[in-house]
Amino acid sequence: MKIEEDSLEAAFGAFCKKAGFRKTMPRKIVYRLFYGACRHLSVDDAMSIISKRNPELREESVYRILKDFEKAGYIRKVEVPGVRKYEYASEKHGHFLCSKCGKIIDVDISGITVPSALVDVSDVSITFNGICPSCAKRKR
Ligand SMILES: [Zn+2]
Ligand SMILES: [Zn+2]
Prior knowledge:
By secondary structure, the protein is an alpha+beta fold. The protein has five helices and five strands; from the N terminus they run ααααβββββα. The mean pLDDT is about 90.
């Protein structure tokens, strides 16, 4: 996906101001990873993308930035049991986890209704397990 440089810069600036972060290159690099993309990235995933263009950025720094960004509400942990990944903190959605390749696919859960007796539902995390379309194709 092509990222608009201007809108990235503006969004990053606004985010740093609100969260009280100094605008630094490492932060911007990590910010860019999740900007406008429904990606699910572990620290390793993030490192392998980053190291292609910015090999000087150390894993400890990336790890710390991810933690800071999580606290600031920009990203959140993907709520899939056994998975340690982050995603952009977009609207709540469920996840499909492929048991063959480990791929995670977002699932729209807005149509799911909660029994009306349960009035104090404060959070939701739904994981579907199965075989993703590309693994299913390979099997045939
Ligand atoms: Zn798969
Ligand atoms: Zn997701």
